[in-house]
Amino acid sequence: MKPIILGIAAINKDHIVLTDDPVEDVENAVSAEEFRKYLSMYEPHVRVGGSVVNTLYAAKQVDDKACVKIHGVVGDDPDGEWIISKLRDLGLKYIGYVMTGEETGKTLILSSRKGSRRIFVYPGANDLFCRDLVYPLEGMNVDVIHTSTFACTRGIEPLNAQILAYEIVNSSIRSLMLGSLYCSLYKDERYRPYIDELLKNVDIVFARLDELYNMYNDPLTIIDKYSTNLVIATMGERGVRIYTKDGTYYEFPAPKVDTIVDTTGAGDAFAGGFLIGVVRGMELKDCVKLGMDCARECLRNIGGTEYKIRRG
Q1: Quick one: which of 52, 141, 186, 307 could link to 301 by a disulfide (CB 3.0–4.6 Å)?
Q2: Beta partners for 111?
Q3: In contact, 206 and 177? CB cutoff 8 Å
Q4: Regions of the chain where pLDDT drops below 50
Q5: Reading across the β-sheet that carries 105-112, which strands appear in turn?
Q6: Where are the domains of the chain?
Q7: pLDDT of 121-168, one tens digit each?
């Protein structure tokens, strides 16, 4: 039976610039004016993106029979039309909204071949994602519901909408990519209660290990505090560390990659492969292998939605 996967997504048009120079590994939200100023300095590669889009693309690559749905918002501009068309071409069904009078979200990603990324985010329509747009999903039956970070520059409503989605969608697996923005916002008392509530609804948390340590001294705290089943910490070329409910963790080394073109979306790709393994009831090591296969192919390409997985 084909798996049904629902993504609650901040959807962006990614502008990726490859550089041999080291860059500061940080992600910041910027205004439309600032974004256009930064973008004018480069000639980027353009991709459809956003963490959830990257993850669900990987899941579709592993299992081409999967029914993959993306729920979010784009603007009523040419970029929004392009994204919806591109998602369709990738086999991802867009079931979200087009926001009148708003620009589609955009990112500028300075991707260093040394592994770091400097990301400028103009949220655009993504900031208008709210509970009213989620209520139509009530009662939907899926195998996986997966989400990631919103910039939340106009308030906490996108966070509230994510929490509601976990509560009203019937799903066997609830997963979250806990990106750098939420790890940073967790330090702000205005956002912390909402991120706490979000984590209480999640079975599997994906995050970079260094970002987890920005939140807690011990990533096992997430399992103890929120009753999460698994915390999967990616460590770049060192592989992944998986924390479990029994209070231990397991490390899996990353396979050697002959050519690394771009690290954008590699962690998201790992999550997509891993989740397909969980849906199939595979052992932990086999879920990791599926994730590593996706991450390896992603690293050989620019962006998180251009590679192909060799099946069989």
Answers
A1: 307
A2: 18, 117
A3: yes
A4: 312
A5: 26-29, 117-122, 105-112, 12-19, 45-49
A6: 4-10+49-101+124-299
A7: 999 999 999 999 999 999 999 999 999 999 999 999 999 999 999 999
The per-residue pLDDT for 110 is 97
Contacts of 201 (CB under 8 A, 6+ apart): 163, 166, 167, 174
Q: Which CATH number is 4-10+49-101+124-299 given? A: 3.40.1190.20
Q: Is 187 exposed, middle or buried (0-12, 13-18, 19+ CB in 10 A)?
A: exposed
- Report whether 230 contacts 205 (CB < 8 A): yes
How confident is the model at residue 312, as a pLDDT? 47
Sequence letter at residue 117: R
Task: Note the helical H segments in 216-283.
Answer: 220-226, 266-279
Phi, psi of 156 (to 5 degrees): -90, 5
**Amino acid identity, position 94:** Y
